[in-house]
Structure formats: C-alpha cells, structure tokens
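G., the chain you wanted modeled:
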Amino acid sequence: MEIETDIANPLLDVLVITEGTTMNTKIYRKPAHTGRCLHFQPNRPPRAKRGIVQSLYHRANVIYQKQQVRSDEIVTLKLDLQLNAYRIGFLLSANP
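Predicted structure as tokens:
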C-alpha cells in the first residue's frame, strides 16, 4: 500500500502531484526500481522487444504533459534500454 506524502500520491505507475489547484503527473518508480526489462537476446521474438519499446514510449507520451519533462523521460528510457542491450538503431526504428 502506498501512502500519500505531502502533495504526491502514487497510483499504479503514475505519481499524481497537486500544486495548488492543478494536478501534474509523472511516472512513478519504486525505490527498488533497477531499470531491468526483457533483455535484447537473439532468442526473443522481435515483436516482443518492439512492443516493450513502444509501450514505454507510449506511457511517457501519455503521462507527461510538459514537453521538457517528457524529453527527459525519453532519455532515461533510452539509457535503461541500452543497459538491457537494446541498440540505438532498434530504439529509433521501434519508436513511431
């Protein structure tokens, strides 16, 4: 169970932040988050790897309302995926 702290409340993978009368959202990662996902191995179907990349990009585009914050999240996604052996060319081709 996650408990609301000050002005932030985590819901599933979204952190809802209240600032006065407005609400902003960002991707919520637990403190134990390691950035691991399906490793880019040759014995995995390409559609599964492409689906992971597309869903992570889609999540960032839906959750973040501000362009600068969204761009920062995309950079974080690329770094996490590269740590899981995804090539930058594959990331660019899988992102619509």
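Helices lie at 46-63, 67-83, 88-94.

Shout if anything looks off.
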